[in-house]
Specification:
By secondary structure, the chain is of the alpha+beta class. A hairpin with a 5-residue loop joins β4 and β5 (about 180-190). It has 14 helices and 13 strands. Helix content is about 40%, strand content about 20%. Among the domains are: about 1-70, no CATH class; about 85-130; about 155-310, Ribonuclease H-like superfamily/Ribonuclease H (Nucleotidyltransferase, domain 5, 2-Layer Sandwich). The longest helix is centred in the middle third of the chain and has 20 residues, at about 250-270.
Length: about 450
């Protein structure tokens, strides 16, 4: 029940995070709430649900008063049994007309039987029975969109890249919607949430916090671990609806540029390791892409991003580290131990039979921090370690790079980038100026 309550709380937070923004006027907030209530959302069970306006307003008020914890429902025990014949009637009504909504089926059963399960119960049962809603939404026209300022909106996605030493590679990147600057990016050999989180963390450390991140519904971007990181950093995590890719044109256009300018050169001079691929890509992005005039803005991405001044300061490293730690729930046994992914740990005997939250680095399962209701209660003592790395996390291999033949365009770009970095003025080692230098020379 605690896990279920946590999922419900995260779902409610995904709705109210936009409404709680102080930048919205009352009229804008009301229009946004009505828009949310008018469309379906992906619920905590992975099903499409519709949330009423009153519920959205109630959750928004609760979040303002008590933060995220106020959105997590309290544990409760409800023992109800839905009559089987009513569920069978609901299935028959859905089979008869697949376009009937759960709410409509609820009304039909109520009229026929005098009582009916709730529309939510019927919807959950129909989905489990393999009878999803077959309704269709009308097509609508879309217009062009651009964020008004830098770091207002980042769009993230993954690009399937070339094979490196026989292994498929993927590019995770986040692009600033206003300037088209590539904020965070990295090549990896696994399309998972760990590498997506690493790219986002690199972007935040380099360009500061963004207000919102816009992602699709791919498996690397719908993980609860990524949602936890965004919630702690107060970043609104927005997912596009399946079949509705509006707003993703800029990053798709960037991927086209990557294919035409970077990957074509990689085909002629393939790197020998992911580390080398990342080094070449950093050089190309910073020396070529960021400095090329964009056809839409008539400015280079770097120039437009810095038009408002220096990049915002990133959050402290301790804050970043906490945000991108992973979290799981376990129940402590009566002997004060618990298991996680084949490992065994021991905690204080007072936590026996308690439901605890485990916070850890996915690449190091030997150190697990134990929390209860958000309060730190100590470090779990490892009793038996069979796995040091989380099964959903993997360290990238470090392979040797083969020798290149001919003109290595990306190698030249990388060399130019390194020369530029070497020629930068080191202000910390400059000799003193003014009177102090003159007096020293005279002495």
């Amino acid at each position: 029940m605690d896990d279920r309550a946590q999922q419900v709380g995260l779902f409610r937070y995904s709705l109210v995070r936009e409404l709680s923004s102080e930048r919205l006027s009352n009229r804008e907030r009301g229009a946004l709430a009505r828009s949310m209530a008018a469309r379906e959302q992906i619920g905590p069970d992975g099903l499409w649900v519709r949330v009423s306006r009153s519920s959205i307003d109630r959750w928004t008020r609760a979040y303002r008063l008590g933060g995220f914890e106020a959105l997590v429902p309290a544990s409760r025990r409800v023992e109800t049994k839905t009559p089987v014949h009513l569920l069978e009637m609901a299935c028959a009504l859905r089979r008869e007309q697949p376009a009937r909504t759960a709410a409509q089926i609820h009304r039909i059963i109520f009229e026929a039987e005098g009582w009916s399960p709730s529309a939510r119960t019927l919807q959950r049962h129909l989905a489990a029975a393999g009878l999803p809603w077959k309704g269709a939404s009308p097509a609508r026209a879309t217009g062009r969109f651009e964020a008004e300022r830098r770091n207002e909106l980042w769009t993230g996605d993954a690009l399937h890249g070339p094979q490196v030493d026989g292994r498929k590679t993927f590019l995770f990147c986040f692009i600033d919607d206003h300037s088209r600057l590539l904020c965070g990016y990295r090549w990896a050999t696994r399309e998972d949430v760990l590498n997506a989180s690493r790219a986002l963390r690199l972007g935040i450390a380099a360009r500061g916090l963004c207000d919102a991140v816009y992602l699709d519904n791919g498996s690397p971007f719908v993980s609860g671990q990524l949602l936890r990181a965004c919630a702690l950093l107060k970043i609104r995590l927005i997912h596009s609806r399946p079949g509705r890719p509006e707003g993703r044109g800029k990053i798709e256009r960037f991927f086209r540029t990557v294919r035409e300018q970077f990957l074509r050169e990689v085909e002629h001079h393939p790197p020998g390791s992911v580390e080398e691929l990342n080094r070449l890509f950093v050089a190309w992005v910073e020396s070529v892409y960021h400095r090329t005039i964009h056809s839409e803005t008539d400015q280079s991405p770097l120039e437009r991003f810095h038009a408002a001044g220096p990049a915002p300061a990133p959050p402290a490293e301790a804050v970043l580290r906490e945000a991108f730690l992973w979290s799981e729930k376990r129940t402590v046994s009566k002997t004060g131990t618990f298991g996680m992914h084949g490992n065994e740990y021991e905690v204080d005997a007072e936590l026996a039979r308690a439901r605890v939250e485990l916070v850890f680095d996915p690449l190091d399962l030997t150190e697990i921090e134990v929390r209860v209701a958000g309060r730190r209660v100590g470090i779990a003592v490892p009793l038996l370690i069979r796995r040091h790395v989380h099964p959903k996390a993997r360290v990238e291999p470090d392979l040797e790079r083969p020798a290149a033949i001919g003109i290595d365009y990306l190698g030249l770009v990388a060399a130019r980038r390194e020369r530029e970095l070497a020629q930068r003025i080191d202000y910390r080692n400059l000799p003193p100026i003014g009177g102090s230098e003159t007096e020293e020379n005279q002495q």
